[in-house]
Fold:
Amino acid sequence: MAGKSVALVHEWFGATGGSENVFLEIREVLPDAKGFVLWRDRDARRGLDFEESWLARTPLRRSKALALPLMPLTWRTLTREKFDVVVSSSHAFAHTVKIGSSPDTRYLSYIHSPARYLWSPDFDSRGSNGLLSLPRRVLRTADVRLSRHVDSYAANSREVQSRIQRFWKRDARIIHPPVDVDYFATAPAPQRQQERGYLLGVGRWIPYKKFDLMIDIADAAGLPLVIAGSGPEEESLRRRAARVRVPVTFERQPSRERLRELYWGARSLLFPTHEDFGIIPVEAMACGTPVLGLRRGGVLETVVDGETGFLIDSSDPHEYAAMLRHVDGLERNRISAHAESFSSSTFRAKVASWVSDESS
Structure:
């Protein structure tokens, strides 16, 4: 990108999250790009020179649902600066960004998912917010109309690629998100290693992640379960865990080091949910840990059925429990080696190629 001015934009920047990590990796590819975000959460990492939008100076930063109708306007009034290339990282309206007025600007957008609140409200309960029911049709129309100028899309998975085609009638190349497989593939210190004697669930404790089903699977299998993460479903999950016959341990907001230890100590990762991509299964596989997942969405691209885990076309906990007897026969070195294809270095190389191809 020598000699070209580049802008890099992202929705809102939280403390942690897969989309934020993707944004930071893209920035490694485009280190001289000027960064823009709608706002940055108070506890987000410091030292990042992103320019925030006017929404950051309003109470709307605390309510994504209320701010959503104003996002398209915000992305059109972000700055008067002109850039040769604008790269957006989008899971809501960032792909509609239009900066300056130069007809020669090239617009590229990496899509984590078309906004679930608008396009898949049955999949994401946040879309059922009554405040969004009336404007949803208007916002869908705006989402399509205001993104016609995008020159090239990249999708994080085949799942998202198909949504882009279905909702926006646009093509997209696939660039899987980056995973720090080198870190997770490095074994914890011997004194921190555990026997692979428990099942593991990792993620945000919200309904669609299916932690309630994970508890039932562990109960059906007669194996201990560790649930790592945090979220609003904690109390209901604890009540459910108290009713089963197996021990269920809750690890709230484990450190990265602790999470790696949990992956390494698990007999299998449970992932009975439908995700766009799913970084957690790749992290687990980097540790040599097999995945038991639902045969939907991103795991179809990350888990090799019968080699790095097993995919199950059911929500019956007994079917998952029955498959557990086969995971011990999987070769853990093979599982770990497969995860290397989703490394950060692979992601950066593909993004660099995409940007070069589309902005030349």
Q: What stands out?
A: The longest strand covers residues 198-204. Residues 11 and 37 are 6 Å apart (CA to CA). The mean pLDDT is 90.
